[in-house]
Structure formats: structure tokens, C-alpha cells
């Protein structure tokens, strides 16, 4: 009945290979009794004797968070597994929503979020330093917020000359998201604004496409793409026989 | 003369203890011949036989980046060490600025940035999930950009209802930065907007202060503080005998 010995750790694997995992996250994954998460994330982890796995579909975040809290309340040591960083468009917010709206006893549980390498930071590192100035991160998913809010945020981000990272640029339900977003951004930013599509960063099929706002081929954008829109100070460094580096000047004049 | 065997890796240690370090970053630090960085970051790393250290002052980023590129061009395996994530208000942008304005041969070097856990992500994890919605990161340092730009970005971020992470909220040269920033934000946001000061996250002296915009004690903000300003959907979960969790609702109505 008592949850005092249970524990829930919310862990992010980073966007791709095991090299992104932090020491704390590795230790938490090793000591957990139950691993809960979206199936492809769990599939990245080695099987371990005596460890239970509960793989779920991607679109049931709140249910998955409740199940994790329920098991921790039963005294289990649970790791809830996200990709990237669990606090950036991933599972951590769902856990606290489940806690606030769930059993009062859940607030007394030992719950900890461990930070990880978000897709945005991993993509930026691969490119050079595109987030070298002020930046913002916007999810284009309108499952939980009105498209009007997304429009306003894109406009504000463009007006503020932020570097912009776009998460969830495509979905089966609404493939036109990225077209709508680029229409808004194109009305607010110069056509030569640098644009990067970072696909499947850290995985074997990784692909980086560099273009400008006027000429970007939006058909390249899929669900595994992180889109970065440069600011005025975002530049290319051409290199002999290699992809250019992309970085943003620290200095703003 | 040839730099073909040299290599420069730009590494972030995360904001505090060794638990934030990724596997790739640890391997890069172990295999480097030369470690270059701000002295307190190098002091966190174990001494290793045959490894050279070059500790420098905090305010000479560009010189430090040039020295790292120069050594890599001489054929050395160099690790340039940052706190947090090297791409977020840290050393990576300085490296590419040094490359673009330096020796043409530097563009042919093997240069790689490894992502890390930024102070913003670590602070957010400690709090719960305050970055659960769209968010932006703004440095309040006006060493390299006019204060007018900072003002405009704060106004745009507030108008867009972004969660806002403020880096470099104080400096010896300009202790009033955070006062000026809060004056701008207070004119644009409701007085009950949640505010968090996350000080020295991941270190023994870590301190978390939760307040609201109208009542925050700005004298608490020092150079090691990461400031988070909530959005409309940012909330507290009160807990028995513990600091409340802070999270941002995924749903925007």
C-alpha cells in the first residue's frame, strides 16, 4: 500500500546512439525494475535479467505516465524512458499532469527527472553552432494547442530575430504543418534566411540538408526531422570536400 | 605542417557534477592530448598522465578558440572544454568565428562539437518540467549585442507566451541587467507569472527559489543563476514536506 520505497525516474536517451546517454541516466536505467516507454526507445536498451518492460504506442503519453506513477506507488523502481531530453516536448510534462490530476498520494512519491541531450542540441552540434545566439523551440503539433497559438509564436520568434528550432514538423494527421509554418516565416523573414533539416540525428540514416527559406524543399521534412531556421547572424563556413559548418555570430550589430 | 592528423573536439561537461557527462564526451576527454578551457571547468576533470592542460580566464573565448585550432593544425588531439552544452552561450560559436576569420587551412581540420546537458535543461529537470511547452533562451549579456536587441527579444518572448530561460542575468560590469529585464517583463506579463531562480544546479551549493514576477527578490540573482520565467500554462504542484514541482501544461486553450 505504501509508496515510500517506490521511485520514478524520467530518463531521456538523447536522439540517437548510446553516446548521448549521461552517466546518471545510464545508472538509473540499470537499477530500474520496470522500464516503461514508447517501444522504439525501449528497443535501444539492452535486455537485463529481472527487469520488466512495458512498451506502448506513441500517442498515449498520459496513460503511460499514470501507469508509471501507479507502479512507483506500489513500491517499484520505475524508469520512464523518453527520447532526447524528457523535459523538451517529451514525457516529463505528462508525468506532472498525471500527478496533478491523479491520486493525491502520488504527490508524495520520489519522482526525479534526469536531463538529457535534446534533438535540438544534438542537431546543432552536428551542424556547428547554429544556436550560438538567442533561440527558441516551438512544436508544430496542434494536437494540444490551437494553430493560432503556433502562428503567433512563429511571428514573435521571427520578429525577435531568434534562431528557431521546430519540433514535430510533420504528422500523418496534418502533413501540411510545415507548409503553413514556412508561409508564416516567409512573410516575416528575408528569403536568404538559412534553413536546416536535420533528419534522424545520431542514427545510421542521419541526413542533413542546408538550404534557404525561399528554396527549401519541404517534401524532405518528415516526422524524424528537426528544422532549424537561422537568425540574421546565422552563417555558413564553406569547407574543402565537406558539408559547410553552420553557426550563429555571438555579436549582434 | 600538415593538420590532417590533428583533431579538435568541443565538449560540454554539463552544469555540475560528473553525472551529466555523456559517454561520447567522456571518451573524447580521455583520448585528448591537450585540454583547453576556463580553469574551473578543467578543475572538474581528473589529471591524466601525458595530457597537457591550458587553463584560461573566462573572458578570452576567441583567443582560446584560436589556440585550440592552432594546436589541432599542428597535429594535436585537442579537447576544448565548456560547461553545459558547448553550443548554448558557450565555446562552439567562438570556435567557428575563429575558424572563419583565421587561417584558411583551419577549415580543413577535423572539428567536431559534442552536445551536452545545458544549464537550462538541468535546471528544468530539477524543477519538474517547466519547459514542457514552447520556450526560448535569451542571454542578458550585452557584451556582444546592444541592450535594445535584448529588450526587443524579451518583449517578443513575452508576447508569444513562451517559457523564457535567461542566461547571464548578472555580471560585475552590469549588475542591473536583471532589474532592467524584469522591468520589461513586468510591463508585458501578469504579476502572478511564475519565476524560478536556479542557482549552481548540480553542485553542492545548489539552491532553487520559486516566486512570482511581482514578488521575486532580484538580489538573489548572481552569475551562477539560471532564471526561468513561466508561461500562462506554467503551474506548481504542492507536495507534502518538499519543494513544489513546477511544470508547464502541454495543452494551450
UniProtKB/TrEMBL annotation, chains A, B:
One of the Pfam families matching this protein, by short name: TP_methylase
Ranges for domain Tetrapyrrole methylase come to 7-216
* Pathway stated in the Swiss-Prot or TrEMBL entry: Cofactor biosynthesis; adenosylcobalamin biosynthesis
Annotated GO MF terms: methyltransferase activity
Q: Which UniProt keywords apply?
A: Cobalamin biosynthesis, Methyltransferase, S-adenosyl-L-methionine, Transferase
Q: Which Gene3D superfamilies match?
A: Cobalt-precorrin-4 Transmethylase, Domain 1, Methyltransferase, Cobalt-precorrin-4 Transmethylase, Domain 2
Has UniProt tagged this entry with the keyword DNA repair?
no
Q: Which GO terms describe its biological process?
A: cobalamin biosynthetic process; methylation
Q: Which InterPro entries match?
A: 4pyrrol_Mease, 4pyrrol_Methylase_sf, 4pyrrole_Mease_sub1, 4pyrrole_Mease_sub2, Cbl_synth_CobJ/CibH_dom, Precorrin_MeTrfase
Q: Which domain of life is it from?
A: Bacteria
**Protein's UniProt name:** Precorrin-3B C(17)-methyltransferase
Q: Which organism is it from?
A: Methylocystis bryophila
Amino acid at each position: 500500500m505504501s509508496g515510500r520505497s517506490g521511485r520514478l525516474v524520467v530518463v531521456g536517451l538523447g536522439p540517437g546512439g548510446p553516446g548521448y546517454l549521461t552517466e546518471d541516466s545510464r545508472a538509473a536505467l540499470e537499477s530500474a525494475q520496470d522500464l516503461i516507454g514508447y517501444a522504439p526507445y525501449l528497443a535501444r536498451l539492452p535486455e537485463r535479467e529481472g527487469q520488466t518492460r512495458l512498451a506502448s504506442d506513441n500517442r498515449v503519453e498520459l496513460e503511460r505516465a499514470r501507469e508509471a506513477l501507479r507502479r512507483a506507488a506500489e513500491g517499484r523502481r520505475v524508469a520512464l524512458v523518453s527520447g532526447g531530453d524528457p523535459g523538451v516536448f517529451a514525457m516529463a510534462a505528462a508525468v506532472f499532469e498525471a500527478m496533478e490530476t491523479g491520486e493525491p498520494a502520488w504527490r508524495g512519491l520520489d519522482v526525479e527527472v534526469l536531463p538529457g541531450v535534446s534533438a535540438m542540441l544534438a542537431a546543432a552540434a552536428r551542424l556547428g553552432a547554429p544556436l550560438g545566439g538567442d533561440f527558441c523551440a516551438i512544436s508544430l503539433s496542434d494536437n494540444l494547442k490551437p494553430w493560432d497559438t503556433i502562428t503567433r509564436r512563429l511571428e514573435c520568434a521571427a520578429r525577435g530575430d531568434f534562431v528557431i528550432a521546430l519540433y514535430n514538423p510533420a504528422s500523418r494527421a496534418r502533413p501540411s504543418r510545415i507548409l503553413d509554418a514556412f508561409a508564416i516565416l516567409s512573410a516575416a523573414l528575408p528569403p536568404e534566411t538559412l534553413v536546416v533539416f536535420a533528419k534522424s540525428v545520431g542514427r545510421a540514416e542521419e541526413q542533413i540538408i542546408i538550404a534557404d527559406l525561399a528554396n527549401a524543399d519541404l517534401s524532405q521534412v518528415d516526422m524524424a526531422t528537426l528544422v532549424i531556421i537561422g537568425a540574421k547572424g546565422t552563417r555558413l563556413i564553406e569547407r574543402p570536400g565537406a558539408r559547410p559548418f553552420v553557426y550563429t555570430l555571438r555579436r549582434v550589430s
